[in-house]
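Sharing in case it's useful to others searching the archive later.

Someone asked me privately for the predicted structure of 2-isopropylmalate synthase, so I'm posting the question and my answer publicly. Question first, with the sequence:
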Amino acid sequence: MLTDPSRKYTAFPQVDLPDREWPSKTITAPPRWLSTDLRDGNQALIDPMDAEKKRRFFDMLVKIGLKEIEVGFPSAGATEFDFISGLVQSDAIPDDVTVQVLTQSRRDLIEKSFESLRGARAAIVHLYNAVSPAWRRIVFQMDRQDIKQIAVDGAKILRDEAAKQPDTEWHFEYSPETFSTAELDFSLEVCEAVMDVLQPTPDRPIILNLPATVEAATPNIYADQIEWFGRNIRDRDRVAISLHPHNDRGTGVAAAELGMMAGADRVEGCLFGNGERTGNVCLVTLGMNMYTQGLSPRLDFSDMERIVKMAEYCNQLPVHPRHPYAGELVHTAFSGSHQDAIKKGFAAQAARNDEIWDVPYLPLDPRDIGLDYEAVIRVNSQSGKGGVAWVLEQDKGLKLPKRLQAHFSRAVQELADRSSRELNADDIWQAFKAEYRIGRTPKRFRLVDYEESRASDGTRIFTGKILDQGTERSISGRGNGLISGVVSALADSFGVALDVVNYSEHAMTGGTDARAAAYVECTDANGETVWGVGMDEDIATASVRAVLSAASAAA
Ligand SMILES: CC(=O)SCCNC(=O)CCNC(=O)[C@H](O)C(C)(C)COP(=O)(O)OP(=O)(O)OC[C@H]1O[C@@H](n2cnc3c(N)ncnc32)[C@H](O)[C@@H]1OP(=O)(O)O
Ligand SMILES: CC(C)C(=O)C(=O)O
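And my answer, the predicted structure tokens:
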């Protein structure tokens, strides 16, 4: 790279708009959305979609709720033409959906485009030509007047072709391609010349689509350009201003949002930001950004996983795991402090028991887009106790006391460091069972049977049978409760000294055959902390098991 890039690249000039209003505006309604997945998205693919893929994509867009869909570039070839005319002929377009096609400003291409739409109830024909200085100079070698003439000539053909098919409700869109790098007054002049030909009305406005064909500046400059255009275009009530941001600087979404604040009525983009080079603006991100501000985008992404899979299949391109809202990893925390905050957020949510979403680090409730909470927390060597506890709670219904969480997380940390990989829910469960001697046959103190009764002085008497290294033994003890009874029986029969420091229990709601879990924190004869965990059908048996589990560790 150059040490002084200013010799090669020039900063984009500001727009002279000192009284700009867009910075104080907010987005209060969704725009008219247009998906150009089947056109701008498709033309950028390594393998453009065949008819089967295009049809699947089209049906998905309809299901999501897109009402305007650019279905292709009919004059590009037989695949495009046949798909578009097939769609029209087969009545596959719902009454509330309007298809759009793109054409260069050349007679034969425009005629072909109209031909592909023969029989359509309604359609938008989209005409474009590039207007900015570099394209005028390099691509067309024409001056301003000639470039305007290309647009005007194309508009006339549009008008005349539409008149030949009066049964279709025709709408027109004109794009001064490369708008964002063109002189504003020239784009305006060309657009108004096109309006002179097409004579839009308030009932049937023309769509003037203002593309950032190549994103070349910070998004505030695009917003200035849009506000300037909206203020200066004549007959504003006969115009729908449309945005078409690309993402070369990585700010396509910001540009679209600021452009909407600047007065645009409509946005063109693709799902997951597919499209030329770095892509078109992502409709999923834009829609979900509105949604998480409490504004319905009128697009339905409730089944995000299916939408991702279908887009990946049709585009033959992966959706990035970190893609906003949709990526595989974006609702997941691996790191301890994030996991801790999320876990607390869910607990606070449950305690409040209202509908407000307020969970740290999670801007969206994953359930709203059809995901469950399983993947919200995943465990690796960066994780902490909260994350491990969350996985056990979600997967097995265990609610570990906080001090046990800390105890167990050390074991998990060691395992994660040793294995150098993510630990799944089963890895964690196996580690938990091993650490607290659950389910496997311990050499000592496996419970076979027990009974509890009360002595005349009110103390409780515990009698039971346990397996001790394969031999069945009867034990009994007295205490104020079941746990002290078991501890005293163990002390009397085996001399296992345990001091119970903390005990807790809860009913389980999922994951295992057990219906109750008990946790006991003890100190042994050496003053070391030992934990016991018991799980069983009823809480009393679970507590006995918890004490025996601790005794097994202490013996
Ligand atoms: C920003 C965008 O995304 S615009 C959409 C781009 N999409 C596509 O190009 C996909 C479909 N395209 C195609 O199938 C073909 O390019 C076609 C059928 C449109 C045209 O094919 P060809 O006739 O072979 O021309 P080619 O692809 O080389 O295009 C370049 C020619 O079009 C001219 N041209 C470019 N844009 C326009 C326009 N909007 N109006 C009129 N002429 C134009 C160029 O000046 C050039 O002309 P020249 O050959 O006289 O120098
Ligand atoms: C044809 C126009 C709208 C286009 O795709 C672009 O400028 O990116």
